[in-house]
Amino acid sequence: MPFCQAHCPLQNNIPDWLKLTAEGRLEEAYELSQATNNMPEICGRICPQDKLCEGNCVIEQSGHGTVTIGAVEKYLSDTAWANGWVKPLKHRRVRAEHVGIIGAGPAGLAAAEELRRKGYKVTVYDRHDRAGGLLTYGIPNFKLEKDVVMRRVKRLEDGGIVFKLGFEVGRDASLADLREKHDAVFIATGAYRPREIDAPGVTLKHVVPALDYLIASNRKGFGDRVPDFDSGALDAKGKHVAVIGGGDTAMDCVRTAIRQGAKQVSCIYRRDMENMPGSLREVANADEEGIVFEWLTLPKAFLGKKKVEGVRLTRMRLGTPDHSGRKTPVEVEGADFTLNADLVIKALGFDAEDLPKIFDAPGLSVSRWGTLTTDPKTLATTMDGVFAGGDIARGASLVVWAIRDGRDAAAGIHNYLEAKAQTVLEAAE
Ligand SMILES: Cc1cc2nc3c(=O)[nH]c(=O)nc-3n(C[C@H](O)[C@H](O)[C@H](O)COP(=O)(O)OP(=O)(O)OC[C@H]3O[C@@H](n4cnc5c(N)ncnc54)[C@H](O)[C@@H]3O)c2cc1C
Ligand code: SF4
Question: Which of 80, 210, 215, 317 is most deeply packed, by most CB within 10 A?
Fold first, then answer.
């Protein structure tokens, strides 16, 4: 298998659809690209291609510059939508079994599509008022336009998938309730427990979690009324903004703040650029847009009376590698300084929520990181008929991996239901 294909989590047949595109056979190229991907136009826009397909392109490695695989994938699907080549979701046979999916992010949506295609009745539950998960409320509009997400959701609705929005499992039903109602359940609730900063002043006003900030901005994009944005609390306009963290969420925050008209935006990260967890392409974009990167810097205290007015920072250096092989940041003595900031955004990443507790389901087994334990092939959890995938099983990851899990879980659920039906048949004989 070619390197680019092997490094795409969906193992997209990239070389063949690139060849078809070069020959002008766009509809055939699109057909091939959508055969392995439920949302190619979304992956084309937001996959960190430098770490996946494009970063492993042999043409790139031979010094000829990379083939822009993501851009071609996006172009093919956008052209397909514009020309009516994206077909309605249909199924050949109707099955009696009903599958419940918790979470309408990419993992839940991909599983819903695959299961509906096979003829199952599918209901997707989500606590938000719109489907899409982080595609809708996490990733900013300038990276992923929301009409692109909504038209995918509409296609699924038109195909007979039922969405129960504003429905929070743990509050409106327990996992046992859903398990009783459905022949199988897929948990795709993402990872939403924000990592916290332990420093004095962290509870001051206008020190805010990244997701609150991004959700408010995305809601404004939909035209919603957002009191905390309208009051200025979650609006960066005219402010000195400090974003703490070095991952893709931090990059989305700094780039959103610039677009909202912030006076100055600084990104504070305790390691150096080479050791950032985010995509280097995103760092380059942020750098071009004028973000000030404070590398090797750690917040020691948030300053101010009621509202935050500044951050006391200290310089770090990289010491010896830890168990994961990454060099540990060590504080440089006497290197404190203060940065003015009237909005501080905490973007240190996310962990899994305590689902066995929230879902009142002690039978769900979790890893030491709190992610749900699943069979690597079928994605079955430790509870009969309950499957899990996406960030809740992997930890905070990528959209393309969530889609992969959704597809794998749909296959796992199909095999489980077929085996169950076979057992019933044999018992009746
Ligand atoms: C700010 C940000 C930017 C990102 N940018 C990128 C990027 O550019 N490229 C990329 O590939 N990845 C990116 N990611 C990561 C990517 O968004 C996630 O890996 C992906 O969305 C995970 O998909 P999922 O379906 O597992 O979960 P999610 O997309 O998180 O969806 C989970 C859904 O479950 C719902 N839910 C949770 N609990 C319950 C409950 N109890 N009851 C009902 N519903 C519930 C939530 O409301 C949500 O809609 C980004 C992440 C963040 C936070
Ligand atoms: S899905 Fe992502 S990794 Fe795969 S080909 Fe498309 S852009 Fe590359």
Answer: 210
